[in-house]
């Protein structure tokens, strides 16, 4: 570590996956890093804590999918063992069990997306409906996650996309829209078609094992963030909770030189934002320096989605087919999931009753209900899927409301989302809503954008080594061929036809 390096101060704002990722790498490179977090604990949307009665709760259960290579690599580096083995999942509607998914990596590997279609066990959806997804493969090939592809598809809603490709109404209602409600947290008419194609490709379609998932054997806060923050502090970074950033101080060269938290100022040679959409909007609303930039003012055109996380303790053991379950058809615009924590979490393995986490996405209409209204509603929904819940008694419960919590990939929002580099040379953006080209989503994307922001700081100061970011597994050979053919035809079209049609 050189003298010069120690003097470079980086302030990171927000301690979720993105902020912790950036802080850890820069601290390891010898920078003087201060991480400011508004909440009482690090973790962001994934933070977990204990109730007054000492029971673990968290802001929704989080899965870690097969392609989360960078997070899995971090787990190896930290030498911790937080995860379950690969788990199977089911899907329910008010009619009952609809779908069972196998562990795809245990089955003979077929060219994508054949394995996904053939190995997923649909209990009711007729073959003819499933086959109606085939024409959509053109859009999957055409959407290559480039800037041009985002601009072509982002103005279209997911519902229009599926309609234009003649996906059957039943397949849309019973397969695609449920995936959108749990993957992008919104119904099809409110999702960008670009985000839809990107998300479906990453989690389901690109390679057969991609939909395989593991869960933490406790809260992510306890199993991952606690040991990780210990490593981060050992590497020399300061992690300060309950520090809400309100402004940046910009010098005459248009560089940030300080970060304001109420009446305190943290001197900075570079700043990394790692807050969600609602967080950055609040900062912009109190920051004259950010309001002076169009790119930051435009962030007010973005939106976020309400989520509700509940945990119910029942007085008896109830048999549940699979530990993780997604549900659709209960409310028109809300998706929900439930998890058997006796199977997933070490803490509840030997509990005499059943412990269930039930999370609701796009839960707008539920947030104003009080706990005494929400708990019986959750029990009723659970009993619709698994009748044994009807007679069980709820002996304890936790209800966590998360208004405007998760990124809304609304149609037309791409043009307002920011890339990692801003118009301030030493201010970088990160988080799961940032524009990047890695191809990952959710926690993995948040972590990767944190690493990318750290690398931008390293290259800005020209000191230290960039962290290696593992790319998403490349497209299978037949997809590569289809994409390159499609690109050739597209370029040919461009060279002979005028730009006449809307993208
Ligand atoms: C219920 C639920 C279920 C989910 N399920 C999954 C899943 O199964 N798998 C998956 O991969 N992802 C899932 N996600 C998404 C995942 O949680 C996010 O993609 C990821 O956590 C985003 O991380 P981040 O670092 O970008 O932002 P965040 O986690 O939002 O962190 C931002 C941090 O910034 C802080 N902050 C905000 N304003 C300020 C300020 N002014 N000053 C200082 N700090 C500030 C916030 O307090 C917060 O800690 C789920 C989300 C929810 C809510």
UniProtKB/TrEMBL annotation:
PANTHER family: OS04G0560500 PROTEIN (PTHR42923:SF24), PROTOPORPHYRINOGEN OXIDASE (PTHR42923). This is Amine oxidase. One of its GO terms (molecular function) is oxidoreductase activity. It holds the Pfam family Amino_oxidase. Residues 18-455 form the Amine oxidase domain. It comes from Nostoc minutum NIES-26. It comes from the Bacteria. The lineage of its organism: Bacteria, Bacillati, Cyanobacteriota, Cyanophyceae, Nostocales.
């Amino acid at each position: 570590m050189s003298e010069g390096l120690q003097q470079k101060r980086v302030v990171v704002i927000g301690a979720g996956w993105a902020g912790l990722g950036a802080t850890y790498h820069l601290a390891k490179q010898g920078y003087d890093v201060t991480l400011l977090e508004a909440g009482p604990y690090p973790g962001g949307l994934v933070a977990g804590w204990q109730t007054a009665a000492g029971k673990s709760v968290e802001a929704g259960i989080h899965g870690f999918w097969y392609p989360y290579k960078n997070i899995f690599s971090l787990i190896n580096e930290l030498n911790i063992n937080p995860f379950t083995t690969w788990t199977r999942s089911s899907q329910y509607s008010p009619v009952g069990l609809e779908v069972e998914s196998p562990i795809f990596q245990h089955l003979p590997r077929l060219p994508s997306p054949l394995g996904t279609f053939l190995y997923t066990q649909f209990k009711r959806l007729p073959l003819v409906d499933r086959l109606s997804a085939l024409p959509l493969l053109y859009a999957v090939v055409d959407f290559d996650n480039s800037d041009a592809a985002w601009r072509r598809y982002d103005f279209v809603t997911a519902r229009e996309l599926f309609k234009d490709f003649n996906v059957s109404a039943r397949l849309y209602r019973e397969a695609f829209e449920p995936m959108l409600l749990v993957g992008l947290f919104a119904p099809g008419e409110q999702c960008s078609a670009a985000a839809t194609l990107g998300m479906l490709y990453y989690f389901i379609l690109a390679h057969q094992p991609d939909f395989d998932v593991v869960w933490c054997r406790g809260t992510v806060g306890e199993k991952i963030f606690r040991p990780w923050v210990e490593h981060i502090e050992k590497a020399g970074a300061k992690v300060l909770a309950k520090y809400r950033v309100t402004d940046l101080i910009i010098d005459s060269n248009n560089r940030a030189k300080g970060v304001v938290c109420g009446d305190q100022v943290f001197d900075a040679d570079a700043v990394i934002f790692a807050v969600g959409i609602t967080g950055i909007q609040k900062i912009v609303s109190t920051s004259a320096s950010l309001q002076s930039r169009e790119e930051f003012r435009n962030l007010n055109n973005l939106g976020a989605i309400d989520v509700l996380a509940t945990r119910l303790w029942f007085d008896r053991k109830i048999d549940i087919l699979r530990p993780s379950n997604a549900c659709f058809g209960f409310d028109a615009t809300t998706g929900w999931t439930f998890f058997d924590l006796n199977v997933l979490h070490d803490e509840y393995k030997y509990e005499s009753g059943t412990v269930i986490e039930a999370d609701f996405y796009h839960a707008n209409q539920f947030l104003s209900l009080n706990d005494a209204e929400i708990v019986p509603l959750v029990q009723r929904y659970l009993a619709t899927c698994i009748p044994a819940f009807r007679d069980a008694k709820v002996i304890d419960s936790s209800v966590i409301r998360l208004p405007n919590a998760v990124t809304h990939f609304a149609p037309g929002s791409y043009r307002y989302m920011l890339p990692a580099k801003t118009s301030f040379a030493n201010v970088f953006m990160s988080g799961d809503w940032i524009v990047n080209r890695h191809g990952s989503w959710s926690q993995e994307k948040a972590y990767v954008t944190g690493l990318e922001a750290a690398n931008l700081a390293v290259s800005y100061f020209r000191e230290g080594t960039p962290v290696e970011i593992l790319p998403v597994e490349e497209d299978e050979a037949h997809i590569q061929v289809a994409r390159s053919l499609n690109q050739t035809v597209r370029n040919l079209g461009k060279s002979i036809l005028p730009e006449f049609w809307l993208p």
